[in-house]
Amino acid sequence: MGLKEIVLTKSIYVFHVSSGSCNNCDIEIIAALTPRFDLERFGVVLVGSIKHADAMLCTGSSNRLAIPRVKALYEQMPKPGFVIAYGSCGASRGLFKDSYNTCAPLDEIIPVDAYIPGCPPKPEATIAALAKLIARVRAKKAVK
Amino acid sequence: MKFPAYMFAFLVFPGFVFSAVAGLMAGWVDRKVTARLQWRVGPPWYQNFFDILKLLLYKETLIPRGVPKAVFLGMPALGLAAATLVSTIVLITSGMPKIGFIGDVIVVVYLMLIPPITLMLGGFASANSLASLGASREMKLMLSYELPFILALAVPIMKCGYVIRLGDIIAYQRLHGDIFASLSGGISFFVMLLCIQAKLGFVPFDMPEAETELMGGPYIEYSGKALAIFKLTKAVMTVAIPAFMIALYLGGIKLTLDGIVKAVIKYILILTAMIIIKNTNPRVRIDQAVKFFWGIVMVLAAVSLVLAFMGR
Ligand code: SF4
Predict the structure, then answer these.
(1) Which residues does chain A have within 8 Å of residue B222's beta carbon, measured at their own beta carbons?
(2) Given B35, B50, B215, which is nearest A10 (Cβ)?
């Protein structure tokens, strides 16, 4: 674990991508930033521009309309960056698995570093996933 | 002073290194106080240093297709240079009033305008509609706060017998007491506090950046090192502008132990006042901001000017 891993894990700016979610995951992300859980104490900040981001938090079932945009956003993210699949939809398309409009889960479209299951995941699950991602980065398994 | 001494003053103390470190600490105070006001815990004290290190050392700097590279990447550097010059001049003269030159107040006022202008040009150069929108708001905001700012600045100049040397203003206050203590000084201090709230882009007047509607405004296309330099510019200005106010209204920095402690306390009080204004007000629209600065704030500034003319 060198300086690079410490710095990268101590300051994670998160950009929130919704690729056709039902809005519940998105509310739950905001809940993780509220006073009760306060992700900012770990240096997590929600940013508005993908160019400032270190992590993409992808909610939703990645439907056909959203896939080109998700790919473009992933390419615009300054590297090194992480992708986190949020919610059952992000991890595996969830209850939209058999829909005509969702052809592939997110991790077959862009490389995913962490999954947060749940429909929607609790803020505690978000924090646990963050801790796991940080441990992976520090063990040099996730930095590209 | 000789050339190496100038370079040391500009690059290390009290110039770039000192003001950047102090500014990042001030940024932490801002985040921590904000967090406490919202009943949160807030980030640890080293958070801003890690943010800057991450951007400077490890993140890619992306340049969008079709932007003029020299303007896009040159503007942050120019802004940082101007901000550092402001903090060097202000901090040195408020410590050692004899060093300044005639007219340095005016030079400082002009230099303070350069960082917003570079931000504007960088925003216009980045080929993004949201950035252009943010940059045009920045321009309107600058036009609105600059007039009351200069009127407020005229009050200490007038009260010290029409001097335009920062050192003379400080020397006058050491003899006759702080300008803040007089009626016109108090009013114009308040006016200037509102203006620097806008100058530093703190919340009621942060519509150029507007996280929720413009996604960062002029900053939107900046990443990596260029973004880090913009953040450092902001940090340096967070030190320089309140220090300028301390020099104008509160007697500068006496270079004794308790003088320095007092100056730091004054700085933290000004900063906390700005943070509390920031956290208790929602963002205003740009037309409301122009109306506010050209209306009530201008009237206040004019009143303080008249009072100063009458010797109050
Ligand atoms: S995982 Fe559940 S809550 Fe989240 S977007 Fe999908 S359906 Fe909605």
Answers:
(1) 51-52
(2) B50
Ligand 1 centre from A117 Cα, in Å? 10
- Which distant-in-sequence residues (6+ apart) come within 8 Å of B190 by Cβ? B300
Band the pLDDT of B69: cuts 50, 70, 90. Answer: confident
Domains annotated on chain A, with CATH: 3-143 (3.40.50.12280)
For the stretch B123-128, contacts whose Cβ atoms lie closer than 8 Å and that sit 24 or more positions apart, written own/partner, are B123/B217, B123/B218, B123/B219, B123/B220, B125/B67, B125/B68, B125/B71, B125/B72, B125/B75, B126/B64, B126/B67, B126/B72, B126/B218, B126/B220, B126/B221, B126/B222, B127/B64, B127/B65, B127/B66, B127/B67, B127/B221, B128/B64, B128/B220, B128/B221
Gap from B53 CA to chain A (nearest CA, Å): 7
B145 CA from centroid of ligand 1 (Å):
46
- pLDDT tens per residue, range B82-98: 999 999 988 888 888 88
| Tens-digit pLDDT profile for residues A35-66 | 888 888 888 888 888 888 888 989 988 888 88
